[in-house]
Design a protein that fits this description.
Elements (H helix, E strand, L loop, with lengths): L8 E5 L7 H11 L3 E6 L1 H6 L2 H8 L3 E3 L5 H15 L3 E6 L5 H4 L9 H24 L3 E11 L13 H23 L2 E7 L5 H4 L4 H11 L7 H12 L10 E4 L15
Parallel strand pairs: 1-2, 1-4, 2-3, 4-5, 5-6, 6-7
Helix pairs in contact: 1-10, 4-6, 6-7
The structure holds 1,4-dihydronicotinamide adenine dinucleotide.
1,4-dihydronicotinamide adenine dinucleotide (NAI) binds next to helix 1, strand 5 and helix 8.
Length: about 260
């Protein structure tokens, strides 16, 4: 096995259970020689299986609500202390919509819930990066990634306010990518992943249709969570040093299809 991340230090947000994309990313980064710290919201420690993953990989799991600046700054301190130095890579794999969860129509959204959704799913990415910035916690030529979905560019009605969350998330990657690049040669990108059966994914109404349509439309079919983890490893490795401020489609070609003649059959 190649050790693309040998000696690198990372923080992985968002492993809830073994279906989570972050779970697969955590496993793959460790396989590739990285030292990591896992983190998730305190609630996820009660209802999820993150502590099992921490045991399996023999790494610490530190609770932090990604909407809390204070908890994020503490997390960054603890991660650097545990890992023994500044951070080389960070995965933001966090998403949740209150209006989707409570099945509000897009034409009848509650704005207090929308603000909370944006805070959890998008502004948290800015908060993570600002905490790393303030603590000067990133190593030169480090790599920061967040996961996103093509509903930021195209209309998927049942994705609702998560579409705007993802548009905001992708914009934060570009804007903070400038500052981090300029200051420390750190790159910031988003990976736009195929529909994937996870707790967050399956929470969207009509998820089977999203999944099946994308799978049939894409010449390569849908990318799995394992495929996504491989792509994250590449993006954390030194093989992708000059890629920054991009939204990278990881979807078997779906994003650039017009029609697929196979669909008629
Ligand atoms: P998941 O449900 O396993 O992961 C979502 C994570 O967000 C959970 O671990 C949850 O505990 C965490 N989270 C929620 N609120 C938080 C808070 N306040 N602080 C810290 N963490 C919090 O689902 P999945 O699919 O692995 O989601 C990961 C990312 O991938 C999300 O950004 C999602 O939007 C994105 N994505 C998922 C796709 C899918 O079809 N599953 C497709 C494209 C992108």
């Amino acid at each position: 096995m190649n050790q693309l991340l040998q000696g690198k230090r990372g923080i992985i947000f968002g492993a809830l259970d073994d279906k989570s994309i972050a779970w697969k990313v955590a496993e793959k980064t460790v396989e590739h020689g990285a030292n990591i710290v896992l983190t998730n919201a305190p609630m996820a420690f009660r209802f999820g299986q993150i502590e099992e993953l921490a045991k399996q990989l023999d790494v610490p799991a530190i609770p932090a609500d990604a909407t809390s600046e204070e908890q994020l700054e503490e997390l960054v301190d603890k991660a650097m202390e545990h890992l023994g130095g500044p951070i080389d890579f960070v995965l933001h794999s966090i998403g949740m919509s209150l209006n989707v969860r409570k099945k509000r129509e897009y034409t009848d959204l509650r704005y207090d819930w929308m603000q909370k959704t944006f805070d959890i799913s998008a502004i948290s990415f800015h908060k993570v990066m600002q905490s790393l910035w303030k603590k000067d916690a990133m190593n030169d030529w480090g790599s920061i990634l967040a996961l996103t979905y093509i509903a930021a560019q195209r209309v998927f009605p049942s994705y609702s306010e998560m579409a705007e969350s993802k548009a905001l998330l992708e914009s934060f990657a570009r804007s903070f990518g400038y500052h981090f690049g300029d200051k420390k040669n750190v790159r910031v990108n988003t990976i736009s992943q195929s529909p994937t059966y996870t707790t967050a994914g399956s929470g969207v109404d009509g998820f089977d249709d999203f999944y099946n349509y994308a799978d049939e439309m894409s010449p390569l079919g849908n990318a799995t969570a394992d495929d996504c983890a491989n792509y994250c490893v590449l993006m954390f490795s030194d093989l992708s040093r000059m890629v920054t401020m991009q939204n990278l489609f990881h979807d078997g070609g779906y994003s650039f299809m017009g029609i697929n003649p196979q669909l008629k059959k």
